[in-house]
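Hey everyone, long-time lurker, first post.

I ran two proteins through the pipeline my lab uses and got sequence/structure pairs for each. Pasting them in order. The first:
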Amino acid sequence: MKNKKILILTGGKVSNLSAFSKEAKVLGTDLKIAAFSDLEYDIESAGKGSSIKIGDRNLADFGVIYFRLLGDSTENAAIVADYAKRRGIRIVDRLYEKPEFVKLPLPKGLETMLLYESGVPVPHTMFMTLRRMVTKAPDKIGFPLVVKGTNGKRGRAVWSPGNQSELAQLVKKLKARKLTCERFIVQEFIKASIRIRVFVIGEKAKAAIVRPQRWVNRFSKELPPNRSYKKVPSKYSSMAEKAAKALSIDIAGVDILETKNKKLFVLEVNSAPKWNSIKRDTGFNVEREILKFLINL
């Protein structure tokens, strides 16, 4: 029997699994036991590569991953399960490989990784705990940072500390919530004056609106004008369609940043987008087009 490297993950106390370590020594098995909270990843924005780690080990090192106890670590487990499935790593129990396991809407930590793995350009992103955010993110990404709660909705859980002092204040504020299982993604700040929201139905970009980026006043004195597109320019439509397809979302609002030198980055893909502005500014009949899509399925 081939001696596979084994990883056991738990949402509980690692110390409760010490008996596994003893038996691994008897069997001569390469075993690592860790908490789901030890999971973090770092994906670069320019195709430099990605890494998902549990502590000091890459997930790719293991042949089998056993979820001993999930607890409140569903987002972390979804990231691990997706990564393992795509790389042929066996997950125990196999039920974690089923699509029903992943909650909708997709957790932001998993969404960003899926976009990157599909070749969609995203900002340099790190997925981590508050403690690791303070020690690692400033050196790896630099200020200003963009910090997002992975459970946030419609942009409410987004912050952008501009220096170490502001980051420390933010961490103190977030710690006060006492949400021990909440995770965060930390991204580089993209100097883009505009944010494009592309409305996608059935993998086809149908309309788009352009709005000023949230923190545009940091680097520009001029506020860009609002614009709208009933026929979406190809540079936006192709990226939005690719992003929606990567996440298997049929009806989506894809948010794209465009920099001064015309680089594009996908920020997020919303599976339940608001469309009042799209309807008002473009005249696109959203409800009718969604119904036509559903009728033809």
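...and the second, right after it:
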Amino acid sequence: MPTPASLREGALIAVAVVSLTIGVRSDTVARPAGRMARLPSVTLWAWERREDLRAVDPQRYAIAYLDQTLTIDLTVQSQPRRDPVVFSAQATRIPVVRIETTRQALLNRETQHDVVTQIMRTVREPGIAALQIDFDATRSQRPFYRSLLVELRQRMPPELPLSITALASWCSWDRWIHDLPVDEAVPMMFRMEPDRGRAAQDSADFEIREPLCEDSVGVSTTEPWPHNIEGKRIYIFADDGWPQDWSANLREKLP
């Protein structure tokens, strides 16, 4: 049976643990397991064009659709999706927020807060299964992007998965994303010419080394797919749009 002294000691330890936990930064807390695992293993990207995905089996495929584009200049401007996208009421929906910047963009705390506030309008859409951010941040923009994601994760519902797209180099030889507070980073394994130009001469050909990038892959309907995609979540970009690219050949390649 514990003595009064041991009880006091245990209480002090508990208080210390709580104090340490309160002091932990949100971007270093372990990510809850399985948030992305609840989604279908194949996701169809619906970008800025008219898309009709009503024939897609909602049990097998999720739909990630461009919801709004945020342009950071001296202020933050939001452009909602212009072209309609239709899908079944049972579809697993992943809205995507695209972030772009101008040459004179102000990347400060006020802008960061404004961007997150705009993104939270998308987060509040009823029935969404996850959120994805698409931002090809340059090296100088990385601190801003990191801070933005930390604030966003803090304001999002804890059960809602947060996904980002990633240049292939971020997942290979330029591993700056390892501690971002996201559930996954989807390596874009298509249209990689700009990334190839930035790669170090002695680097491997975009071998995935970053753990955040290991469970998913982004491909297109008109370019060769990587060979090692078994067991990954596959995001497919339709170069000519859906359902035009929804061919029998494509369906045969899917799990």
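Reply from user beta_strand_b:
Welcome! Quick read of the second one: Residues 17 and 60 are 43 Å apart (CA to CA). The mean pLDDT is 84.
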